[in-house]
């Protein structure tokens, strides 16, 4: 089955998304996968571009020009200086990409980094991409975030919350839901017939038999018991300070982590340039590079496109696996 083009959103126009889009096209224009930029053609004008009105036009054009489905900015973007006047275009790019995936015109969507604060100022009512896409696709409450790299896959149970609030939000049901979704995705999209999950402890040394905290006993172990009863291969709780070594990583396919930084620090340490953010639990495939807008280097032509290229390639692989 021939894969339909991917939809690539603009991200924050003041960040590095535009230059990454151009460099990703330059790297992939011969080999593919084919993608369409949902962006303002004027800000991509340093590359050969072609405006299209239908995704069906893109495959025959991709090798010679970057296909662009125009979403115009309200004001010209200045690198490194976010402008809330352009927030509506950023949001529209995400909305259009999701709609194209839902109606089958696009095989998957890849999102360039956004500045949440700039969108909040314009009335954006979601903590980030993940929650917004869940609402757009009717999957609210079912979505989870996986960060994937060649060396490690991690799933944080709690995400965009302070550490204090993350601990308060942690429940047995939340751990079970995240692990179920991760196991299902590893089977369906990643082609693993028997995925192995490792569940991290919350406290140092996984609580040291209750001496350093009891969440392992009261919250995490009951979740592990439920998952094992369902036939999911799950181990833990693992001491968080040792579960990400090379030897430990060989014993599982994904780590279920209790909060944002517990998951993202090891992932970014191991694969900052090749990590990909994957939203699981959606009816569509969505990936994103595992970095931010990088305002400090925006417009300087030095941004590394490796993570975006990895996100595009993984999106195509996951979409192909879904069939």
Describe the structure.
The protein starts with 5 loop residues before the first strand and ends with a helix. The chain has helices spanning 17-28, 58-61, 87-102, 116-121, 129-137, 163-169, 172-188, 215-229, 246-249, 260-271, 306-322, and strands at 6-9, 35-39, 49-51, 66-70, 109-110, 144-148, 153-156, 196-200, 233-238, 254-257, 276-280, 286-289. The chain is 37% helix and 16% strand. The protein has a twelve-stranded mixed β-sheet with strand order 3-4-2-1-5-12-11-6-7-10-8-9, sandwiched between helices. It folds into two domains: 1-138 and 308-323, Isopropylmalate Dehydrogenase (3-Layer(aba) Sandwich), CATH 3.40.718; 144-280, Isopropylmalate Dehydrogenase (3-Layer(aba) Sandwich), CATH 3.40.718. It is α/β, with parallel strands linked by helices. The protein contains eleven helices and twelve strands. The protein is globular.
């Amino acid at each position: 089955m021939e894969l339909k083009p991917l939809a690539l959103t603009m991200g924050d126009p003041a960040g590095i998304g535009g230059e990454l889009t151009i460099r990703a096209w330059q790297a992939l224009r011969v080999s593919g996968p084919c993608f369409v930029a949902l962006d303002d053609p004027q800000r991509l004008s340093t590359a050969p571009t072609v405006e299209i009105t239908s995704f069906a036009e893109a495959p025959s054009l991709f090798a010679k020009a970057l296909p662009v489905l125009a979403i115009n900015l309200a004001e010209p973007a200045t690198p490194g200086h976010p402008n809330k006047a352009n927030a509506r275009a950023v949001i529209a790019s995400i909305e259009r990409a999701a709609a194209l995936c839902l109606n089958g015109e696009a095989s998957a969507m890849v999102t360039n980094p956004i500045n949440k604060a700039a969108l909040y100022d314009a009335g954006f009512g979601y903590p980030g991409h993940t929650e917004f896409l869940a609402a757009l696709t009717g999957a609210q409450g079912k979505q989870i975030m996986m960060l994937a790299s060649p060396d490690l896959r991690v799933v944080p149970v709690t995400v965009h919350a302070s550490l204090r609030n993350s601990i308060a939000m942690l429940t047995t049901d939340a751990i079970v839901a995240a692990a179920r979704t991760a196991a299902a995705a590893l089977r369906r999209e990643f082609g693993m017939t028997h995925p192995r999950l490792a569940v991290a402890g919350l406290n140092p040394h996984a609580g040291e038999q209750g001496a350093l905290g009891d969440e392992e006993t009261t919250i995490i172990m009951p979740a592990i018991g439920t998952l094992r009863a369902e036939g999911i291969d799950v181990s833990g709780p693992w001491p968080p300070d040792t579960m990400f070594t090379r030897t430990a990583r060989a014993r599982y396919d994904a780590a279920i982590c209790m909060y944002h930084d517990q998951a993202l620090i090891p992932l970014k340490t191991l694969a900052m340039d090749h990590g990909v953010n994957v939203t699981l639990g959606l009816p569509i495939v969505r990936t994103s590079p595992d970095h931010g807008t990088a305002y400090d280097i925006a417009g300087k032509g030095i941004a590394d496109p490796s993570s975006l290229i990895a996100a595009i390639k993984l999106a195509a692989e996951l979409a192909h696996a879904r069939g």
